[in-house]
Amino acid sequence: MSQKLIFELSSKGRSGCDLPEIDLPLRNIKELVPEKSLRQNDLKLPEVSQVDVVRHFIALSILNHHVDKSFYPLGSCTMKYNPKVNEDLARLSGFSSIHPYQPEETVQGALQLMYELGEYLKEIGGMNGITLQPAAGAQGELTGLLITRAYHTKNGNPRSKIIIPDSAHGTNPASVTITGYQVIQVKSNDKGLVDLEELKKVLDEEVACFMLTAPNTLGLFESQIEEISKAVHNAGAILYMDGANLNALLGIVRPGDIGFDIVHFNLHKTFSTPHGGGGPGAGPLGVKKSLEPFLPVPVIDKNVDEKGEETYSLNYKRPDSIGELQGFYGNFGIMVRAYAFIRACGAEGLKQISENAVINANYIMESLKELYSLPYPGPCMHEFVLSGSRQKGKGVRTADIAKRILDFGLHAPTVYFPLIVSEALMIEPTESESRESCDQFIEVMKKIAQEVEENPELVKGAPYNTPVSRLDEVKATKDLNVRWKG
Ligand SMILES: *Cc1c(COP(=O)(O)O)cnc(C)c1O
Q1: Based on the domain organization, do 103 and 138 belong to the same domain?
Q2: Is 80 exceeded by the pLDDT of residue 288?
Q3: Which residues span the domain enclosing 225?
Q4: Which of 183, 277, 329, 330 has the maximum number of C-beta atoms within 10 A of its C-beta?
Q5: Domain tally, the chain
């Protein structure tokens, strides 16, 4: 199943296309380029035909697992299925060939798209103001925390602490630290939710903000959100929602309606941008009215003149703004995809996304909870977290189970996160999977549970059907060598 390097396919004199003979005089080259800078030897390029090249790269693309090939339980957090048409739209030259320094009147369409996308996100989030600038969720968090500080500073005291639950995504404490605030962690209760009493104990005049992921990283909805909101606001602090994964809430719950003052969205998770390759992304941030003056510049204004004509402009004149976050306006191509996705789905379609995502996750959770332990019982939202602790008793770790899943042609779920679940397997099927593909995953997980009982060594040696078997992950990190030397 392995694939040779393209250099190993090379055959002297073979070529992918026929170029005409050079008919320009080359004798002047030595006058133009100093002798020592001239290449002394031929480049070692592979000599291959067109079909060699095409087959080589197609073969490589099939060796990799991808969402176009089969089930991918890493979900929206990493790689949910995104409609291909949005890729075509993002590549339209009217969008892809414009320059950020172009005069505003020549990019009215792009500004309108950004403005309207902002309006949709405000509606989805129940927010009053928006910035599209952050390039990722983590930068959205940073922006939200800078706004938090600007707000408190304006009110006389920037405050010094930010509270985060122990189930939080790692970017939350990192963003807090970068902003110069101190992280205060609160423990989750035995249901995996925020422990309200613990929270109240740490809330005081120095707390600037409470950052909460909703649904939380266990896939659970905070049932006490109203009490949490009241307690946080009584302390004069801001309630921040990490909305990186909005897959469960679209059209069902608006963060602004349940007490959140700030929310960041990950367009590259929920709103149609492939995320698996690690970027680029977009982490727009919505805020409530009292925080709007602090949004980064520029914001996009819609202007209507006497004749009713609409134009769009970039507004930099905002004295309380935290300033510019990016050289320009954010990752525009991602915004085009998100805009197209939201327009194509409509309000009803977005709601269906969340309903399907939630029912798929609950269906798989219910089907597997007898075989794997479920430390925090559902119902879950768009994802749930199993523990491989029972299998560990047989000497099989979650990592082994994940490797064994690959043998059945599926991708493994997220493992060992969140940290509060030992041997965690976090499963998010997303809205696009059919009943049949959920069933296929369930069957594979049942088969592996049975193998663990009957033949644990088999699972511990997996994978067997992949191009390479178990990799030495430490060596791959410490002794990485990917260079070809001819
Ligand atoms: C992915 C994620 C983030 C970070 O988003 P990036 O775009 O990767 O920076 C933050 N919080 C949660 C809950 C996430 O899932």
Answers
A1: yes
A2: yes
A3: 87-343
A4: 330
A5: 3
